[in-house]
Design a protein that fits this description.
Layout lengths: L2 E5 L3 H13 L3 E5 L2 H10 L4 E5 L8 H10 L6 E4 L6
Parallel strand pairs: 1-2, 1-3, 3-4
């Protein structure tokens, strides 16, 4: 069983991702905004983080990713984005 952190503000997307991971037997924690997601990502030991690129508030997905990198966290991160360009 993996410990999965899902940081996604769209309720339908988050529910779909979390349900799929739970059906596979993984433990899932869901955060709806970047501030909460960043705190949970830094505090916990996660096997994987599923991270939305665009989040409400002052902390977006790239800021979370950069912070994890600066802290030396080696957790794999899957970044989700609806952006059509980099």
């Amino acid at each position: 069983m993996w410990r999965c952190l899902v940081i996604e503000d769209e309720p339908e997307h988050a529910r779909y991702i979390a349900t799929g991971l739970r059906e596979l037997g993984h433990a899932v924690v869901h955060c709806r905004d970047g501030v909460t997601g960043l705190a949970r990502a830094v505090e916990g030991n996660w096997d994987v983080v599923v991270l939305d690129r665009m989040l409400p508030g002052d902390v977006d997905g790239l800021a979370i990713l950069a912070t994890l990198g600066r802290l030396g966290k080696k957790t794999p991160v899957l970044v989700l984005s609806a952006l059509s360009a980099v």
